[in-house]
């Protein structure tokens, strides 16, 4: 395939097609108001993205419960008071010609008490002196994901992306290291995956056949097992429970170091699965037009743009204009980001990313 194939439309199982193969990854910018309401900085960011020719734009991680917060100034979708700001975001994206999704997030055991978060561990062994959440609390959080999806639909988003990566609550329940429960949400792989499956199935039932559902999955850290995640993904593909899988890799080219898939690319472990009508994309150091094109050759249906999109908001347009486009070299100065339109809040967040912003700038 050539870079030009990135600009071919991509149909999804539910709802409208993506106009091209570029999806903006969910980027936590920490620029919302303290109550989770979308701020003028959020709106400015979305306005820039909406004019950048992405096929689908995901919001930053949005809290499905106030107690599930992980970041200061995190976007919220746990209250109807968030609806006006979310509606404006969805409308702006639609007017720019792209599809839209809210990333639904709960921090689980990593919720920050200093921000009003209430840690919700799967196991009583994860955090000192904090008991595992009860079965009833799991069901409440499940229902909060579903209610948040309904809120996203009401705001006018085309869909949601369920955050099942990076050790947040759904990822935590999948991990045999972090989940030693004895109820129906622990023990066997089927039980540990139940929370995720019930969230996805509940959203489909609540939001109907035209609403799009994505699922973000990561493999590294938190005791997650590649073989297990492949098995769960195969089942989700076979049952066509989602519209797209967002595979969050640290590096889209990384190699499996041990186990039954040793020596293969981590990506290939998933692209080789029969996926019926489900679409698969990957994130992870996609900084050039050429690398984005290569990922289609490696079995991806679309690519997720993260850091490259922060450096150059209109990455898809840059690629269309120049098939040899490459992102600016990191680190960059804060001034470079300011001139590109990033808010001071967003720049402060990026200072926390290793080697992104030049020290002292």
UniProtKB/TrEMBL annotation:
<keyword id="KW-0560">Oxidoreductase</keyword>
<dbReference type="InterPro" id="IPR013785">
    <property type="entry name" value="Aldolase_TIM"/>
</dbReference>
<dbReference type="InterPro" id="IPR001155">
    <property type="entry name" value="OxRdtase_FMN_N"/>
</dbReference>
<feature type="domain" description="NADH:flavin oxidoreductase/NADH oxidase N-terminal">
    <location>
        <begin position="5"/>
        <end position="321"/>
    </location>
</feature>
<dbReference type="Pfam" id="PF00724">
    <property type="entry name" value="Oxidored_FMN"/>
</dbReference>
<protein>
    <submittedName>
        <fullName>2,4-dienoyl-CoA reductase</fullName>
    </submittedName>
</protein>
<dbReference type="InterPro" id="IPR051799">
    <property type="entry name" value="NADH_flavin_oxidoreductase"/>
</dbReference>
<keyword id="KW-0285">Flavoprotein</keyword>
<dbReference type="GO" id="GO:0010181">
    <property type="term" value="F:FMN binding"/>
</dbReference>
<dbReference type="GO" id="GO:0016491">
    <property type="term" value="F:oxidoreductase activity"/>
</dbReference>
């Amino acid at each position: 395939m050539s870079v030009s194939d990135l600009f071919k439309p991509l149909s999804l199982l539910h709802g409208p097609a993506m106009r091209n193969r570029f999806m903006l990854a969910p980027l936590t910018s920490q620029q919302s108001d303290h109550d989770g309401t979308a701020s003028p900085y959020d709106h400015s960011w979305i306005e820039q993205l909406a004019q950048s020719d992405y096929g689908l734009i995901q919001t930053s991680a949005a809290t499905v419960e106030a107690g599930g917060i992980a970041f200061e100034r995190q976007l919220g979708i746990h209250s109807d008071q968030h609806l006006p700001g979310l509606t404006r975001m969805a409308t702006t994206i639609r007017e720019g010609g792209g599809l839209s999704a809210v990333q639904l997030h709960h921090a689980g055991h990593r919720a920050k008490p200093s921000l009003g978060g209430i840690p919700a561990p799967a196991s009583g062994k994860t955090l000192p002196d904090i008991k595992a959440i009860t079965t009833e609390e799991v069901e409440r959080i499940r229902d909060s994901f579903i209610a948040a999806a309904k809120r996203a639909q009401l705001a006018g988003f085309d869909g949601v992306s369920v955050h099942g990566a990076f050790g947040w609550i759904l990822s935590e329940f999948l991990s045999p290291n972090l989940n030693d429960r004895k109820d129906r949400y622990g023990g066997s792989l089927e039980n540990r995956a139940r929370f995720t499956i019930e969230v996805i199935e509940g959203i489909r039932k609540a939001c109907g056949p035209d609403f799009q559902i994505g699922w973000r999955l990561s493999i590294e850290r938190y005791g997650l097992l590649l073989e297990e995640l492949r098995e769960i993904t195969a089942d989700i593909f076979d049952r066509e429970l989602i519209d797209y899988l967002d595979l969050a890799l640290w590096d889209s080219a990384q190699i499996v170091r041990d186990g039954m898939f040793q020596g293969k690319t981590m990506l290939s472990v998933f692209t080789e699965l029969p996926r019926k009508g489900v679409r698969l994309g990957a994130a992870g150091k996609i900084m050039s037009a050429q690398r984005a094109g290569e990922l289609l050759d490696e079995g991806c249906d679309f690519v997720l743009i993260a850091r490259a999109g922060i450096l150059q908001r209109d990455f898809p347009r840059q690629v269309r204009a120049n098939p040899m486009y490459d992102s600016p070299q990191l680190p960059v100065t804060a001034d470079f980001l300011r001139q590109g339109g990033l808010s001071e809040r967003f720049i402060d967040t990026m200072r926390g990313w290793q080697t992104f912003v030049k020290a002292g700038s």
